[in-house]
Write a structure and sequence with these properties.
The protein is an alpha/beta fold. The protein has three domains: 212 residues, FAD/NAD(P)-binding domain (3-Layer(bba) Sandwich), CATH 3.50.50; 90 residues, Alpha-Beta Plaits, CATH 3.30.70.2450; 123 residues, Glutaredoxin (3-Layer(aba) Sandwich), CATH 3.40.30. The protein is 33% helix and 29% strand. The protein is built from 15 helices and 26 strands. Strands 1, 2, 8, 9, 10, 11, 17 and 18 form an eight-stranded mixed β-sheet that branches. It has an eight-stranded mixed β-sheet with strand order 6-5-13-14-15-12-16-19, with helices on both faces. β9 and β10 form a beta hairpin. The longest helix is centred in the middle third of the chain and has 26 residues. The chain is globular and about 75 Å long. The mean pLDDT is 89.
């Protein structure tokens, strides 16, 4: 058995989506981590399915978006059925085509998502050490010592930093003594991956509500689907359940018979809703399910873990390379824990309404939904909010200590995800978008509006002399071709904007004036940029 290196800068415990994304993002930022996992091999089960627009934007930065899309199924619609009558429908593409390069949900089995990330790590000479179980952790000011069992051999690994990405039953979290507050839904749930002959549409996720029954339908590919539902009370005490036991109840909920099906995976499980009391303890961090678990409403769990890794990796890499002061690491928990708590609250409410067996709540739901939901979904503002919530493109860090807003503009603020806006790169003579423009590692200073030649020269000279590495600079002067972008940022011949885009594509700094001293103050005092 291959011996694991005994020293590393970053030790990642857990090779699920969050841990693999953490490794990929560290590699992208110039840090080579070490990854261990107690499993003997990668996941073969489909598990999490939904890859949201914000996650695909992250994969795009890694150059993996095209292979993800080629292996998945694009879903452009969301529909709610009550007693088989469709009471609400939402076309994601029609409302989000100008909000993301990916105005849809990608249905892709977790096993495939993991394989794509593993292949990325392999291509960067970053192996995963399977069959390696964490036994204990000891911390000091100098770092972390992890005791592991690698097969039958005990080993010790010294690391400067440790990332706990080892799931809801996280050994890392338990070793740190971090409470995992929340609870367990009292219902039992079933999951069934099937090959079926009925055509419910390959590009629509459907929610079916009927009496006390609840089922969600996810089209994985042609004739291959997943159903998730509440286990009927009459079956809750029975052991060794199979899909054949569930089939009559699912048929009743769908109001048509499922015939000639092949069940590829069936599982009965409980769902939890919990958030760790702390995401960061000394030299250790928690990401993904180790930090938070949610109901499956909206397909948010895995995507939230991917964003945890995306948020933390650039900060940790910068500290390791000596570019930023350690204080920036506290912003990980300050930014991501409120996101997890808000998501938990939102999914809890929606899920409780969908699966409630309370007579009053169920009847109010059944009576109000056909009347209220169609009217609400006619409103553009509501549609935008729904897409922002589902896609996670609406997540921002306005209250973060890293967000500085000195602008009169109200539609965009520091802490927001950088808007996806197509425009013309006149210097390159081609169409592009802001995300593609700011795709490099490091921070990006973006100046929109007219600068005279002297000011532009002084700004470029200051960047070259003061921040020769990892501060990209782009200048977008007014032009008729880019009128739409200028209007969004409220820029004209007399008004301009200075933005600093973080490596995770969030706006860190937004100012109506281009003032070198203020930009420098933000980078040195707020970010803690050190002169390397």
């Amino acid at each position: 058995m291959t011996k694991i290196p005994s020293d590393t800068s970053v030790l990642i415990v857990g090779a699920g989506p969050s841990g693999l994304m953490m490794a990929a993002q560290l590699l992208r930022n110039g840090i080579h981590p070490l990854i261990i996992d107690s499993k003997t091999k990668p996941t073969s089960e489909s598990r999490a399915l939904a890859v949201q627009a914000r996650s695909l934007e992250i994969f795009r930065q890694l150059g993996l978006d095209e292979i993800m899309i080629s292996q998945g199924n694009i879903v452009r619609g969301l529909a709610i059925h009550q007693d088989m009558e469709q009471v609400a429908a939402l076309n994601l593409s029609s409302i989000a085509v100008d909000k993301s390069a990916f105005p849809y949900v990608l249905i892709l089995e977790q096993s495939k998502t993991e394989r794509i990330l593993i292949d990325y790590l392999t291509s960067h000479a970053c192996p995963i050490y399977w069959n390696s179980e964490l036994i204990s952790i000891e911390q000091s000011d100098q770092g972390v010592t992890a005791e592991i069992n690698h097969g039958e051999e005990k080993q010790f690994i010294s690391a400067d930093w440790l990332i706990g990405a080892d799931g809801a039953s996280s050994k890392v979290r338990k070793e740190l003594g971090v409470a995992f507050s929340g609870g367990t839904y009292r219902h039992l749930f079933y999951l069934a991956d099937l090959n079926i002959q009925q055509d419910l549409g390959e590009d629509v996720i459907r929610i079916f509500l009927k009496d006390e029954s609840f089922a969600a339908y996810f089209p994985m590919s042609e004739k291959k689907v997943r159903f998730i539902g509440v286990l009927p009370k009459t079956l809750s005490t029975r052991a060794n359940l199979s899909f054949q036991d569930i089939k009559p109840y699912l048929t009743y909920t769908l109001d048509f018979s499922i015939q000639e099906e092949q069940c590829n995976w069936f599982s009965i499980y409980q769902l939890h809703h919990r958030v760790a009391e702390m995401f960061h303890v000394q030299n250790c961090f928690l990401i993904g399910d180790a930090a938070h678990v949610h109901s499956p409403v909206g397909g948010q769990g895995m995507n939230t873990g991917l964003q945890d890794a995306y948020n933390l990796a650039w900060k940790l890499a910068g500290v390791i390379k000596g570019e930023y002061q350690k204080k920036i690491l506290s912003s990980y928990s300050e930014e991501r824990r409120p996101v997890a708590k808000k998501l938990l609250k939102t999914t809890d409410r929606i899920f409780a309404l969908a699966v409630s067996d309370n007579w009053l709540i169920r009847n109010l739901r059944d009576w109000l939904m056909p009347l209220v939901v169609p009217e609400f979904w006619k409103k553009d503002k509501v549609k935008d909010q729904i897409f922002s919530l589902i896609s996670q493109t609406g997540i921002g860090y306005a209250e973060s200590p890293l967000s500085v807003h000195h602008s009169s503009i109200k539609s965009i603020k520091a802490g927001d995800r950088l808007p996806y806006i197509k425009f013309s790169d006149e210097k390159q003579g081609k169409e592009t978008d802001l995300h593609q423009w700011c795709n490099k590692t490091g921070f990006t200073l973006l100046v929109i509006g007219k600068l005279n030649d002297r000011d532009l020269f002084l700004l470029a000279k200051w960047i070259t002399e003061t921040y020769p590495q990892n501060l990209n600079f782009y200048y977008l002067p007014p032009s008729e071709k880019n009128k739409a972008l200028l209007e969004i940022f409220e820029v004209d011949e007399k008004r301009k904007k200075a933005l600093i885009i973080r490596p995770d594509m969030h706006i860190g700094y937004l100012n109506d004036a281009v003032i070198i001293e203020m930009i420098d103050t933000y980078l040195k005092e707020t970010i803690g940029w050190k002169k390397v």
